[in-house]
Specification:
This protein is an alpha/beta fold. The protein has a single domain, classed as P-loop containing nucleotide triphosphate hydrolases (Rossmann fold, 3-Layer(aba) Sandwich), CATH 3.40.50. It contains 4 helices and 4 strands. It has a 4-stranded parallel beta sheet. Helix 2 links the parallel strand 2 and strand 3.
């Protein structure tokens, strides 16, 4: 069993990479779908989306399923709970950096640039 984290700024190819991995794909964006089935990221609900994402990862790992979670994970601190989750479930843990430079379909270039400025190189081990 394995938990794979794919991180990168919006438009870096996280979801595209995740689709190539033999695991159940989970991301906070899944929880930002309105009652019409349309994507709408409500910044006020950001914490809820990420909490639901984490809880789904936890549920799937408890069912011994391979999981790939593709969120921005801008800081190392944001990855720590997932590392701990993998340890709790005796799952292998991997972090993949998405470094593509595509146009984000959900986020303005100004927000992408702010995230890029805050992006920390992965350094947990």
């Amino acid at each position: 069993m394995k938990l794979t984290i794919i991180r990168g700024v919006p438009g870096s190819g996280k979801s595209t990479i995740a689709k190539t991995i033999d695991a159940i794909q989970v991301e906070a964006d899944q929880f930002a779908i309105d009652h019409f089935g349309e994507y709408y990221w409500d910044i006020k609900k950001s914490g809820i989306y990420h909490k639901k994402c984490f809880e789904l990862c936890e549920k799937l790992l408890s069912e011994n399923k391979n999981v790939v979670c593709s969120n921005t994970f801008i800081t190392n601190k944001s990855i720590l709970p997932y590392l701990e989750l993998a340890k709790q479930h005796n799952a292998d843990f991997e972090v993949i950096e998405a470094k593509g430079n595509f146009k984000s379909i959900h986020v303005s270039i100004q927000i992408v640039n702010r995230m890029r400025d805050k992006y920390e190189e992965f350094n947990l081990y």
